[in-house]
């Protein structure tokens, strides 16, 4: 190890020599190893320069995007990319914007939009990069230089700086506050519309995804809002397609009870719904706008639509998910629904065999949560493995890093969010910790 770190005169090694030496243990590109070597030499005394360079290279490798095992029990973990997805593709070209029937230029939105519209019971649908973009585009396309009425109780901030007043302002519309923080009734909206005449272009209803207000609260249901004289558009956030969950043989899980769904919000009279593709829909990062064809079309024609359009990987992934929902094979084909519907009995059996094989840990009952602001407060019964001590750092250092949870100086592995095929990696990790 000392071969390059100190020469006989006690001088630090050359950057190049150190980088070449690092290449023996690290498969990173030369340019990155040179950077590690340079930083180690700059930062360090002569004696441990090589050790420091090694550590920098190891740390860099750890930060590269890669698969991890989500053992947190948070099904849609924003730090872990929300919904896990599997993408099948090749390095062939695709017909992304080729109309296969005419051979002429087509739209990437047509087929996927049709499938999504069918799923939601909408006339039409388009896809943008995320739900924040969907709301931005809807307000920009339908309310530019005009007013958007939003209940004071729904003028919210949702994770990662998505703030309704700011998004509205960026869209070129003016926000009109309606009602009060805890109660907003139909007559409050009516009053605002009467007072401002034709200025109000839209009513925007926002699902307060990541928090719950309780006590003396009242909001106006979509069915009542739909009687207003202006279109009502709804940011439902989480992207539950249909609250009867036909892909689960109609057995909607109880933890979804308070989530608004696209199909029901539209049938209650919303002109448009906007939602994330990577929450309860279980897909890639994307935002979906579905509803009245004339309004969807106005969004699609707006110049911002070009800037917010997703790439072919996103469209391909959404297409296979939409087909899985329509075929009702979601529980075998969509990772999110697989996680969400695994029985507690199966989880317990897996926990027991992990413990038997590794020789450490105990079975524990846990509560998973949907995550990403979906169904706040709701929990899903789960089972995991618990061991004494905080092992998070070590677990993150594994070849396939394992992200677990620590509480009261114990490390918990919630099996609901772990693929069954990855159980052997938990066994290895547990053996490693105990050994
Ligand atoms: C999550 C969420 C958003 C933001 O969606 P992104 O897809 O992360 O941009 C906006 N509104 C609501 C109600 C949400 O739940």
Query: How many DSSP helices?
Result: 17
Main sheet record: 7 strands, mixed
User: Quick one: overall form?
Assistant: globular
Please mark out the parts with pLDDT under 50 across 5 or more consecutive residues, or reply none. none
Structural class: alpha/beta
Global mean pLDDT: 93
N→C terminal distance: 26 Å
The level of helicity is 25-40%
What's the β-strand tally?
15
Rg, rounded, reads: 26 Å
Query: What CATH architecture label of the largest domain applies?
Result: 3-Layer(aba) Sandwich
CATH superfamily grouping of the largest domain: Type I PLP-dependent aspartate aminotransferase-like (Major domain)
How many domains make up the 3D coordinates? Answer: 3
Q: Give the ligands present.
A: pyridoxal-5'-phosphate
Secondary structure elements and pairings:
Elements: H1 15-22, H2 30-43, H3 49-63, E1 69-70, H4 110-120, E2 124-128, H5 131-143, E3 147-151, E4 157-158, E5 162-163, H6 164-170, E6 174-178, H7 186-196, E7 200-206, H8 222-225, E8 232-237, H9 262-267, E9 272-276, E10 287-291, H10 293-301, H11 303-307, H12 312-327, H13 330-333, H14 335-341, H15 344-358, E11 362-368, E12 380-388, H16 392-396, E13 402-403, E14 405-407, E15 410-414, H17 423-434
Parallel strand pairs: 1-13, 3-6, 3-7, 7-8, 8-9
Antiparallel strand pairs: 2-10, 4-5, 9-10, 11-12, 12-15, 14-15
This protein binds pyridoxal-5'-phosphate.
């Amino acid at each position: 190890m000392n071969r390059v770190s100190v020469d006989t005169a006690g001088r630090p090694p050359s950057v190049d020599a150190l980088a070449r030496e690092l290449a023996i243990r690290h498969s990173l590109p030369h340019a990155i190893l040179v950077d590690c070597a340079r930083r180690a030499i700059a930062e360090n005394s002569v004696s441990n320069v090589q050790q420091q360079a090694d550590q920098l290279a190891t740390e860099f490798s750890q930060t590269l995007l890669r698969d991890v095992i989500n053992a947190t029990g948070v099904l849609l973990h924003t730090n872990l990319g929300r919904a896990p997805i599997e993408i099948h593709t090749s390095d062939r070209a695709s017909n992304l914007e080729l109309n296969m029937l005419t051979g002429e230029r087509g739209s990437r939105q047509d087929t996927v939009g049709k499938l999504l519209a069918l799923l939601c019971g909408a006339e039409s649908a388009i896809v943008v990069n995320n739900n924040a973009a969907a709301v931005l585009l809807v307000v920009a396309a339908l309310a530019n230089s005009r007013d958007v009425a939003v209940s004071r109780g729904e003028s919210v901030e949702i994770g990662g700086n998505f703030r309704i007043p700011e998004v509205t302002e960026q869209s070129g519309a003016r926000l009109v506050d309606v009602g009060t923080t805890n109660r907003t009734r139909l007559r409050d909206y009516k009053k605002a519309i009467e007072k401002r005449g034709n200025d109000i272009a839209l009513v925007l209803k926002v699902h307060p995804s990541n928090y719950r207000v309780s006590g003396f609260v009242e909001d106006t249901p979509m069915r009542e809002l739909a009687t207003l004289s202006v279109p009502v558009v709804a940011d439902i956030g989480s992207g539950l397609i249909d609250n009867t969950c036909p892909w689960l043989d109609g057995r909607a899980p109880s933890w979804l009870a308070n989530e608004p769904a696209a199909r029901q919000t539209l049938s209650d009279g919303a002109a448009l719904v906007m939602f994330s593709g990577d929450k309860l829909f279980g897909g890639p990062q994307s935002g979906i706008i579905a509803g009245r064809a004339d309004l969807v079309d106005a969004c699609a024609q707006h110049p911002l639509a070009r800037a917010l359009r997703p790439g072919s990987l996103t469209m391909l992934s959404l297409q296979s998910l939409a087909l899985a929902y329509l075929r009702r094979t979601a529980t075998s084909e969509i990772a999110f629904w697989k996680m969400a519907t695994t029985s507690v009995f199966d989880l317990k059996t897996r926990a027991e065999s992990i413990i038997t094989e590794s020789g450490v840990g105990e079975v524990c009952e846990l509560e998973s949560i949907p995550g990403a602001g979906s169904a706040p407060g709701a929990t899903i019964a789960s089972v995991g493995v618990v061991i004494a001590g905080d092992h998070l750092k070590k677990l993150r250092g594994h070849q396939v890093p394992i992200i677990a949870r620590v509480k009261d100086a114990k490390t918990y592995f919630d099996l609901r969010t772990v693929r069954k095929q990855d159980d052997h990696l938990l066994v290895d990790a547990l053996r490693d910790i105990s050994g």
